[in-house]
Amino acid sequence: AGCGLTLSSLTGDYLLQGAHGIYNLKQRWGVVDSTPVLKIYSTNRNEQRGQGEEPVVVTARRMVFNEDGEVARAEGDVFIRSGVSSLSCDTALFYAGKDSGVAWGGPVVRDSAGRAQGDTVVWTVANGELRRVAIVGDAEGRYRTDAGDTVIVRGMELSLMITEGRIERIEVARLSAGQLVRKSGR
Strand 29-34 vs strand 120-126: parallel, antiparallel, or unpaired? Predict the structure, then answer.
């Protein structure tokens, strides 16, 4: 397809579009190598369609989609957005049937209150929203509290619980450093 390609999972939860790509009908896989955009919808997509549902949106330089395994692979300058949260990395795998994925190559998770990074990121999606993110291997996070203070943590693993696109809770496994920086003037 030289002027537009759309690939979808059997359930319709994943929709991959791009300007140029191929799809092998016999082997049920495709590649979008020009302006690929992957949209991950809620499993209740048809029920929520009219309620302004925001899908998780993924962009990259190249994406590969395997319909049988419902696996998508994003490669090069990957950017994932869910609400006010985002994840950037070099490579990411998405498992449609499991509502989960893994990212590596300098992954950084951000929201309006902070950021976290490490060697590898694993996440789960529920009802079209990013819910849980685990940052594994040399993990570091920096977050601003509601009071305006900044919390800086380092450890082997950071687990982030996300509600409506905002980081609600952070858990640190094998903490190696932690710091609380008070807002000036307090």
Answer: unpaired
Contact by Cβ (8 Å): 104, 80: no
Contact assessment for residue 76 and residue 61, using Cβ atoms and an 8 Å cutoff: yes
Q: Helix, strand, coil proportions of the chain in percent (round to 5)? A: 5, 65, 30
What is the CA 109 to chain-centroid distance, rounded?
A: 8
Maximal C-alpha separation, the chain = 66
pLDDT digits (tens, 9 = 90+) for 79-116: 998 878 889 999 999 887 677 899 999 999 888 888 99
Please enumerate in sequence order all residues whose Cβ is within 8 A of that of 164, keeping only pairs 6 or more positions apart, or say none: 83, 129
User: What is the DSSP secondary structure assignment for residue 96, as one 8-state letter?
Assistant: G
Number of other CB atoms surrounding residue 38 within 10 Å: 25
Give the 3-state secondary structure of 99-166: CEEEEECCCEEEECCEEEECCEEEEEEECCEEEEEEEEEEEEEEEECCCCCEEEEEEEEEEEEEECCE
Residues belonging to the chain:
186
**What are the tens digits of pLDDT across the range 132-145?**
889 999 999 998 88
